[in-house]
Amino acid sequence: MIDDALAALTPERTRGYGPGPIPGEVDDDVRRLLAAVRGADADARGAIGRRLGDRVGMILLLFAERMAALAVRTGDPGPAREGLDAATLGARAVDRRDGLVRLSLLDDALRRLGLDPSPFFAAAEDLAAPDFREGLLGFPARPPESRSIAAMKYEAGADADGFRYLCRW
């Protein structure tokens, strides 16, 4: 099932994904991958990071960014929960600092909804690699200036469809 989900994320299908409309078809493909990983046993989850590769790892991080925006647009924390899973899994495949950047967006989205991000971050812990776990769990308790979207070079903005996080680098 994981192989099928990974096979759907071809370079042709994911081209232009990041700035594309939210939601989009690739978002559904990523959700299928996340469901397959969540449905796997702990050993399979541990090995998945090695199978993802940089390209799919970045798609997962882009999904996290997009889901943070969708959570704010809809007022529903569900997309942020999915985004946390994706950021945590994506950080297994790419530099974990890229995962931490996306955590700022998800933290911000949940706070905009008036929610405490800590339980949402804790729920993604079982997907975290050991070197990412502490950063994931401790992120919501960071001082505001070190967890802010501005500190991560993002700002709140909008596109034609509504709220969106915009990268400033």
How would you portray this structure in words?
Helix 5 (78-93) packs antiparallel against helix 6 (96-112). The chain is built from 9 helices and 2 strands. It has a two-stranded antiparallel ribbon with strand order 1-2. It has helices at 2-8, 11-14, 25-38, 42-74, 78-93, 96-112, 118-123, 130-138, 144-147, and strands at residues 154-159, 162-167. The radius of gyration is 15 Å and the shape is globular. It has one domain. It is 65% helix and 7% strand. With 169 residues, the protein is mainly alpha-helical.
Would you summarize the structure shown here?
Helix content is 65%, strand content 7%. It is mostly helical and 169 residues long. It has one domain.
Q: SSE order, as H and E?
A: HHHHHHHHHEE
Any idea how many domains? 1
Strand order of the largest sheet: 1-2
Mean pLDDT comes to: 94
Low-confidence stretches: none
Largest sheet: 2 strands, antiparallel
Instruction: Tell me how many strands there are.
Output: 2
Distance between the termini: 36 Å
Find the structural class using helix and strand composition.
mainly alpha
